[in-house]
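Deviations from the work plan: none for this task. Representative record:
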Amino acid sequence: MKKTIVIGVTGGIAAFKACQLVSDLVKLNFDVHVIMSKHALEFVGPLTFETLSNHKVHIDMFDRNFQHDVTHISLAKKADVFCIVPATANTIGKLACGIADDMLTTTFMATTAVKIICPAMNTNMYTNSIVQENIERLKQHGVRMVEPESGLLACKDVGVGKLASIEEIKEMILDSLTEKTLKGYRVLITAGATLESIDPIRYITNHSSGKMGYSLARMAKRMGADVTLVAGNVALPRISGITTIFVKSALEMFEAVKKHYKNQNMIIKAAAVSDYTVKTYQSHKIKKSDDELTLALKRTDDILSFLGKHKDKKTILCGFAMESEHVIDYAQKKLVSKHCDLIVANNVTEANAGFQHDTNIATIVTKDQVESLGLMSKLDLANYILLKMKEMG
Ligand code: CTP
């Protein structure tokens, strides 16, 4: 069944950003309802939210033009999450004092859903000790907050008070809707391509975007795990709430993994590690001369094999295999040779799978099972892999 998210919009200039949030949440297949304060109407028209959410926007407690049920109670009961974007100092103050004088504050007060506030206001207002006390009070009562960012504000002041990014707010909503099945678990994940420098200008790398590893890290965090991510050469937004160690070369990744592999419940090596690096790094740019140039390469350490041999007994180890032929056969061989508990294999030649895509087609190979999964988002696959590993632990 679709989850219901109620977005409360109060009267600040950042109200226009709530339109994008509603649109994104509808695309993620949530049932989204919007309640606006009267002041919010000065900034955005309800028609925008009605068109995006496909539902009437609620503003007035005493609106006669509604279905028979008492709207603030029915929405309060229906909601899985109630998120106020943006939350003004005025609304925060009212909620902290238990004042319910409009549809938004009444519904917020009446709901048992997860409650989130996303403050946005002038810096001096935000840092005002009364506002801070009110925020603290709401937090003590179980209300979650997406911290505002620092930057240039609409009032031209520079400082804290800018609405958090829509991505951060979405992540908080999705996080709060995810069952904490990995609470108490420690998970180490590697992601992305490694980068082997040849000279100060050139390097050897591969097409890995890091999306699979990042999806695993994001999902493990949403499931409540304590996540350490060792990220190679990736261009992806940082995931808040996890420890990320940025590395470039295979050697740096190996060093980072050696520092963190002990005392983990799960280790997932989703990174595409270079099997070779240059024999000698040239400290000055290699100038062209002849028609041909031969680079002498040497093997890198196999991090997964190291983990297979040295990991704690209780740690469930997952490797990845990116192949272009004999996928299952090669994955089964890697499972044994690298002492893994499971290998997630995918075929680089399949459409919408592997490098760069947001989707994947994987086969999970364990000692006694070969499980071929269909096309799915990398986040859904991450969820599947993590639950599988929990089951094996
Ligand atoms: N891997 C690793 N260290 C390396 C190379 C690979 O930890 N130096 C890990 C990858 O993170 C992945 C798995 O090994 O989890 C599979 O990597 P892949 O390069 O596909 O396999 P190889 O063992 O290198 O085998 P081959 O080159 O024969 O395909």
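The first helix runs from residue 17 to 27.
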